[in-house]
Each structure stands twice: as C-alpha cells, then as structure tokens.
Amino acid sequence: MKKMKLFIVIAAVLFYPLFVCGHETKKTEFPFFLYRDYGVSGSVHYSPSGWMGHQYSLRLWGNCRENPYSGQTCIKIVYDPSIVDSKKSWAGIYWLHPANNWGIVPDAGYNLTGAVKFVFHACGAKGDEIINFFIGGVTGKHGDSGSSGTLPVTLKPKWQKFEIKLDAVNLTNIIGGFGFSVAKEFNPEKIVFYLDDMYYEGREGQKKEAADPEAKSGPAGPKTKPADEKGRLLRYLSSVESRNTGLYESYQNTACSIEDMRFISEIPLMRTENGYLDNLGFLYDNALCLMALMDTGELAKAEKLLEVFQDNFFMNKNGLSGLYNAYYIGNHDYFFYTKPEKYNLLVMGLDGNRIYFKSNIFIGLAAQYHYSYTSSPAFLDFIMKIYRWTEKIRCIVLPNETDGPLAMGYGPGLEAERIFLTENILDHYAFLKILITMMETGDKNVVSAAERNNVSLEAVEQKRNNILYWIKYEAFNERGTFNRGATGPDVNGDYAIDTVEALDVNTAGILALGPQELMNIGTDPYSLMETIEKKFKVSVKVKGQTYSGFDFTTTLGYHLKRSRPMIWWEGTAQMCLCCRIMAQYASSQGQADLAEQYNRKYRFYLKQMDLFSRNAVRSPWTALPYVSELVDKNTILYSFNDLWSIPRGRTDQNAVTGKKEPRYVISLSSTLWRYFAATGLNPLLFFPR
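The structure corresponding to this sequence follows.
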C-alpha cells in the first residue's frame, strides 16, 4: 500500500489565501463545463495551457476515444518519470483562462459565484496512480480570487466521481479553473490516467440533460421535445465539423488495416493513426447536413457551406463539372492543409475523380430546401445550373425516343455510367417535382433564374413525366417491391433489370413519391409498407439485448460470406420516417385505426434507435453507428452480394478491462436520418414538414 501524503511543492497552491477582486465579471450559468466532449460547442471552457514542473514528462490528448466515461471522447494523460529532470521531480497542468494567463491579464477570469462544488471523473489505466487535483490558486497581480483542493487521490482502474467543495471559496474571478500535479515520489513508473465530465455545479443542482441527456431516460426510451432533438444534433455536428474546411466528418472510429496501408501508402493525405475514412466528408452526408443545419436555425453556417459546394461544382475537373463523391475535411495533424488562394477550394478525397449523381442531386435538394426555408434567391441560379448539368449525364432512351432515367454518375473508367439505380432515379424525381413547384409559384426571382439558365417549365415537366413512366413500368416488380435498378445497354442496346431487393430503394419510393402518388401509378402504399416489413425487418442481439430494425437487403441478396442479419441504421431511420408519413396519410383518409398502427410502429422504431444509441454506443447525442455489427479491422463484412463492404471499426484497448475491443463506426448519415425521423423532416419534399 502506497503511503499517502501531500505534495510539498503543491502546498502553496492548495492553501493560497483567499481574497476578493475589485471587479465583477459576468456570472455563469450552471452546470459550467470545463470539459465534456471534444469539439462540442459549450462543453469546453478553460485551456490546459498552464504546464508546470518538468513539463516534458507529461503528454495530454484532449480527444482520446479510449473508453470515455460518457460521450465520444475523454482526456488522456501520460506521466513518464524516466525522463524527469532530477531538479524537477514533479509536473502538472493548469486549465487557464485565457490560455497561458498566469495572473497577468486583468478582469480575465470567470465569475463562478453560485457554484457549490467542482465535479470530475477520473480513471487509472492500471490503478494505484496517485494524483493531486485542485481549483484556483494562480498567483500574480490579477490572479485567482480563491482556491481549493484535495489530498492526493489514488485512482482505480474504473471511473470514479470526485468532488471539490467550493462553499467557502471566493469564486468571483477564477482563471485557474482546474489543475493536477503528479510526483515521481509517488509514481516512480510511467502512469496513464483519464479525465472526463468536469464541471462546476450550482446550488440548484446539475440539470439531468446537461450531464448526459441519454443516460437515464428509462427503459421506455427518451421522451424528447423538438428543442431537445435540435440541441443534441447541434452538439453532435459540432463534434464532427472541420475547423479548416467547414465540412462534416462522415465516419468516426474507422479502422486502418494492413491492406488499407498498402493502398494509401503513397497518399499522404490519407495517412492517419485511425482509419482513413475518418478524414473524409462524403458529399451525400454533407448535403443532409445542410438541411439539418437550416432546420436547427444554423442558417449562416449552412449558407457558407452551400457557397463552398457551389464554387467547387463549377471548377474544371479535366473537362468535367459536378462535385466529387468525397473530400478531405482537413481536421487532423496528419492533414497538411495549405490554405489555397481561393478559400472555398476543397481537396478531392477517396474515390478519386468519381462524380456520383445521387450526392450531387442531394446538393440540389439542399439548395431547394434553402429556398423553401428562406424564399431567398441566393442559390436559385445554382439550382437551375444543377438541372442543366443533369442533361449531360447518360440516360435511358424511352420508347417514345425521349430521355428517361439517368445513370449513377461518370468519370474516367467509371462503370457507373452503365448503372441506373432506382433510388437515384427517385431522388431525381423529387428534385424535378420540387423545381416544378417552385416555378409554378410565379416567384419573379425563380422565373428570372429559369430564364437566365434557359430552363422551361415544359421541359422540366416532360422529364418528370418520363421518370414517372419508367418508375411505373420498369421499377416496380411483381414481388411487391421496387427493383434496385438496371444495367446496360448491351450490344443490342437492351438494359438488364437488377432484381436484387434493397431497402433504401423502397423507402425512397415512399419519401419521394408519397403515398398518394404511389396510388396514382397503381402501387398500394399500405401493401408496400407491409412487404417492406416482411422482407427487410430483422432482430439482432447485442450485449444481451435484442433490437429490431431493417437490413440492407433480403436473405437472397446476402453475400455468400454473410450468414446472419444486421440492422442498417440509416435505412431503419428512413423506414421510421415512412411510418410517420403513412400515419399522416391514413389519418387524412379518415382511417384513424390504421393511422394509430403506423404511429405505434413509428414510436417503436424510434425507440429502438435511441435504445441502441444509449445502451450499445453510449452516445450522449443519440448518434448512431453504420450497422449493428461490431466489425473489427480484420473482418470484411458485405451488405449485398456484390461486394459492398461495411466500414470496419477501430480495435482499442479498454482502459478499464484491459481487453482489446472493436469500436462502433459512428455514421453521420445514420444520425441525421434518425433526426429527420424524430422531427418529421422529409428531405424529398418541397416544404419538408
């Protein structure tokens, strides 16, 4: 048993006399977080910039993902006494405000009057790490108004909650919000410890949601209001937003295997200590982000990002126009980002020069949503130019010799020029339908933009009708679902129908066409919903609990190496939104009982997503992974029979158990579609609600 005693070198800090500053800084609302989660707005105050003693013996990571107490990140600290200067056998760090302020900046601290204690959580990698923690005590002409501390604490290899009482402390001006010190005397060997959820608590007590909005919402799942949904989504988006490019990171916790390293060894931008997918913002995901940002009131941020995409859309790409499938977000140390002369220039990411139709048309849908949200003409020309851009993409020629559905995309050597996906075609239908609605309003700004870009209402209507014809006679099959698409033409000019059944094609049919339009083309939406549930619904057991959701495809579409079902959370969220839409439609048709059935299903699937996020992922933002499977870096798992593989997760050592465990790959698109389902926002409608 290690002997417990005070660090002599810290005594002056702990017992620094209290005094009252002559100014009054702005009072603070509680709980006031010193650290909650890396990159989350409002969750980090003070800067760990006050390094003391032999600072080279310390290392600190503020975005460590190794078994955080809550959320996605925690603080990891390593102290290595083997490199300690014999004259300085201790080290420590102060969280200061502003950074590097050792009492030299007047009126700089936070007024924390009303706080009764400082709460923090700590965990040792092995146990028996002896650390000293304290509040305030920074000297200097404009130093702290008070201080408090603890005796040295011996950590355990599991998370513990600690409190520093502040009842008798003058908190009118605190610039040293928190600090710790370690000494070679008590830690003769290298130690690792973790910190998380550090905050000042007021007299009224900590608000439940502020600490962990999902942690204790009960077995029935969280009961949230629209404001709660928006707040959580914005906190999540803040954690994946690039500070360099404004793009949003599509995946987190992805793996990088030996095979991947061979692939990326010559591409410095893709090198990462994690997976190479972690540094990418896929265009489709970011288009969804644009809609979510506008829906949550972040209009200025959405407009700035739309401007970026608008600028990059028309940049020459070896004779091509349009936006690439993915871009580097440029957030990490390994990304050697040089700010170009034109600020809005993005760096091409994975998939090289692939330009996919779906992701580009979703940018168009986001621009249309901006108009429906603001009535602003800012992006009307962009919308019209995207329409004209679609005319350059290869299409299926219909029997009446007019242009029909468009191909998956284009680019050098891209097979997608011969692939026609029903899902993409339905997205295109939605874009055309919304454009017609905009032009029929008679808005002079819309009319002027159409005239400038030579876009006629008659031409748009013709294209819309052609796509609807193909959907009616080619896309829907006798099995009661949509075909995945078509491939061709062959030497005779014929197209082969892809009969593999896919979930997203069928949910897109409901979201893009709507129940009434489905009725109009002879497809019963009630029957379609019943068939989707019958064919795609699956149940899986994760960590002893069973969850229900929807798979990518039916068992007939499984790859030979996939023997078991898995829940695809983005598709499940889309299906959840479909239930909500069908409930509204049934109610409008006077079928109250049927409407309540769909409402029950809607609530059930939303609850399944939230339970999985809280219990399996432990996300404070209701963030969802890509799939329900924990796919480690050495496992390749396919969603379909045509080698569409699932992103693999990092395998990290659990700081508590010491075992190596795979991480869930957090998906931006899954999380955004869950938000759309919870709030009723349909990205494929003109007025989404």
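The radius of gyration is 28 Å.
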